Structures are given as structure tokens and as C-alpha cells.
């Protein structure tokens, strides 16, 4: 399972990588996003980020946080959407990035699903079974945390490293017994499976996970106004949902836009929105200080105990900042 580690040379090289001329000019900015379901998909679909920043944005879709980290490390992407687990792994290896926004605190929108007929009715039944998960993702972290809580030896579970699309295909072929994943794959496998646990429960066990936005430090230093405006558009979208979730969900246009960007069925979009906790500007200003720094440190320590990172940072505060959500007036 050590092949989950990001290439060390790639991350070391990242600190020496200069942004392209286009990115330095902030005329065209490449941003990585994933299929997580959250209100910020609405301004993305509407072109609101481009309008607010005055920049052309090249949106690139990725299937996992480890892929986003690799793209950010290479300099191909300057802002990326990923989970708190791949963030902790990247920060532990010194990637020059800053967490500047929280998309959501993950709840039931990520879950461990077991196949109908797999004879898995309790956690101990996972021993000897094939369980798929994208390595170094929030679901990987949640799976390992769940096994620890259940006192199930992870070495006795056949954990397979598959991307979400690969999980869907493997499930349809009958190649795997269970999977811990997010939408749209989650909705597809739930149709013929049952949820054994979700990240909402894992959070209660002391292992919360988040979907967050990171930015390369060199880009943030050169273009703080771009990051401020990106944060404001995102926070406005989140605030619109938090103010009236029922009205947001009842708006078919909102659901359709998120469905098109994520590939999730409209019904799964609704469940995804209801399954996560979204934080207002005030909540984010408070979280993106000691609480989130500690959460990253705890996640990194757990990953090290599982052999996913070689060493830890003495201090993770340089990888977290609330300055951009504060500036989003």
C-alpha cells in the first residue's frame, strides 16, 4: 500500500517550479475541481468566478485528491479542490500550498457500502473481503479510521486502490465486495448495496474530514485579490444554501447544474447536499485557525501510523490561512 505515496521528487521539485506566464498575469488560471456535491458548483456553472476575478478560468476535472496534488505540485494547476486527507499528506511532504477555504465538512455524502449478497453484515465480516477506495483520499482515511474503531486489522482486509469511476465498473462486474467512495459512484453502488457506515459517523468517532480549497503559495502571494474574490464567490454560494436549504434544493435549476458538473443523478445531488455540513464565513474564520491546523496534524499523524507518509511537520499552521475568507467582505 506504500505505492499510495506521492513521488517525493515531484514534491521537492514543486518548490522550485515557477508558474507559467499566463498564471503570473492571472489572465488565465487553471483550477482543479472534483465531483463533490456542494453549493459552489452553482457559481462555477454560471461563470461567476470569471466575472468576479476578470480572469479566464480553465476548469479541470479530477477524480481524486492525489491527482489534484500532483497537478498542483507540477505547477499545471494553481488552485485545487481536494479532501483534508490528501492535504495532510501533501503538507507533511512540504508542498508549498495553503488551505484558504472549506467547501464542506463531510457527512453522509461519503460512505462505506457493502454489496447485497456479499455476506457482510457487521464490520468483522470485512476480513478477507475486497474493499475498494481511492488511496490517500478522505474515504481512504475514513475507512482506515473505521477499521481502527472496529478493531479490525487492516492487513486482513483486501483494500484495493481504485478511482471512483473504476469502483463503479468493478462493482458492476462483481469484482469487489465493498467500497468507500463519494458521488456519483456512491449513488450508483448504493442501488445494489447497503451503507455500513458514513463519514458523519466516523467524524463522531473522532476522525472528521473536510473538502477544502488550496492555493499554491507563490500564486497567492502574487495574486491575493484573485484568491480573495474566489473565496467571496464561494462563501456567497454557501451562504445562499445555509440561509434556506429547502429553497435551494427545491430550485430544479440548482440541482441540474450540480448534476451536470458532477455526473451525479439529481436525487443523489439532493442527498449529497443534505449529507454534508456547510460553513458560513464566520464559521470558516474560526475553523481555519487552530481547530483546522490540529485536524490536519491529527490526520497526518494517523497517516504516518498507517505508513502513508514518512515524516510529520512540527507545525502545520503554515498550510492553513483564514486571511482570504476574512477579506471576502
| CATH topology value of the largest domain | D-Maltodextrin-Binding Protein, domain 2
Q: On the 0-100 scale, what is the average pLDDT?
A: 91
Overall shape: globular
Tell me the total number of β-strands. Answer: 10
Share of helix, binned: 40-55%
CATH architecture of the largest domain: 3-Layer(aba) Sandwich
Low-confidence stretches: 1-25
How are strands sequenced across the largest beta sheet? Answer: 2-1-3-10-4
Task: Please report the first level of CATH classification, the CATH class of the largest domain.
Answer: Alpha Beta
CATH superfamily of the largest domain: Periplasmic binding protein-like II
How would you characterize the overall build of this protein?
The protein is of the alpha/beta class and 329 residues long. The chain folds into 2 domains: 196 residues, D-Maltodextrin-Binding Protein, domain 2 (3-Layer(aba) Sandwich); 96 residues, 3-Layer(aba) Sandwich (D-Maltodextrin-Binding Protein, domain 2). It is 48% helix and 18% strand. The protein contains 18 helices and 10 strands. The strands form 2 sheets. A 5-stranded mixed β-sheet has the order 2-1-3-10-4, sandwiched between helices. The chain has a 5-stranded mixed β-sheet with strand order 7-6-8-5-9, with helices on both faces. Helix 7 links the parallel strand 6 and strand 7. It is globular. The N terminus is likely disordered.
Amino acid at each position: 500500500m506504500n505505492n499510495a505515496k506521492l513521488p517525493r521528487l515531484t514534491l521537492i521539485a514543486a518548490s522550485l517550479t515557477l508558474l507559467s506566464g499566463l498564471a503570473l498575469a492571472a489572465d488565465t488560471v487553471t483550477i482543479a475541481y472534483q465531483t463533490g456535491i456542494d453549493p459552489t458548483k452553482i457559481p462555477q456553472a454560471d461563470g461567476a468566478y470569471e466575472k468576479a476575478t476578470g480572469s479566464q478560468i480553465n476548469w479541470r476535472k479530477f477524480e481524486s485528491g492525489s491527482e489534484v496534488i500532483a497537478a498542483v505540485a507540477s505547477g499545471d494547476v494553481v488552485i485545487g479542490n481536494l479532501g483534508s486527507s490528501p492535504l495532510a499528506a501533501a503538507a507533511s511532504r512540504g508542498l508549498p500550498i495553503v488551505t484558504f477555504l472549506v467547501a464542506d465538512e463531510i457527512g453522509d455524502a461519503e460512505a462505506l457500502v457493502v454489496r447485497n449478497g456479499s455476506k457482510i453484515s457487521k464490520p468483522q465480516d470485512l476480513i478477507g473481503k475486497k474493499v475498494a477506495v481511492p488511496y490517500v483520499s478522505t474515504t481512504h482515511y475514513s475507512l482506515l479510521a473505521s477499521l481502527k474503531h472496529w478493531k479490525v486489522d487492516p492487513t486482513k482486509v483486501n483494500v484495493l486502490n481504485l478511482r471512483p469511476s473504476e469502483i463503479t465498473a468493478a462493482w458492476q462486474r462483481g469484482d469487489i465486495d465493498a467500497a468507500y467512495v463519494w458521488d456519483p459512484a456512491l449513488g450508483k453502488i448504493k442501488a445494489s448495496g447497503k451503507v455500513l457506515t458514513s463519514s458523519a459517523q466516523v467524524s463522531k468517532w473522532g476522525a472528521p474530514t473536510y473538502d477544502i480549497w488550496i492555493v499554491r503559495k507563490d500564486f497567492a502571494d502574487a495574486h491575493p485579490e484573485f484568491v480573495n474574490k474566489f473565496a467571496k464567490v464561494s462563501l456567497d454560494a454557501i451562504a445562499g444554501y445555509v440561509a434556506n436549504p429547502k429553497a435551494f434544493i427545491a430550485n430544479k435549476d440548482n440541482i441540474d447544474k450540480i448534476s451536470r458538473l458532477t455526473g451525479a443523478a439529481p436525487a443523489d445531488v439532493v442527498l449529497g447536499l443534505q449529507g454534508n455540513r456547510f460553513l458560513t464565513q464566520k464559521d470558516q474564520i474560526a475553523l481555519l485557525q487552530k481547530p483546522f491546523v490540529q485536524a490536519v496534524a491529527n490526520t497526518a499523524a494517523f497517516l504516518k501510523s498507517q505508513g502513508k507518509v514518512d515524516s510529520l511537520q512540527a507545525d502545520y499552521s503554515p498550510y492553513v490561512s483564514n486571511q482570504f475568507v476574512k477579506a471576502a467582505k
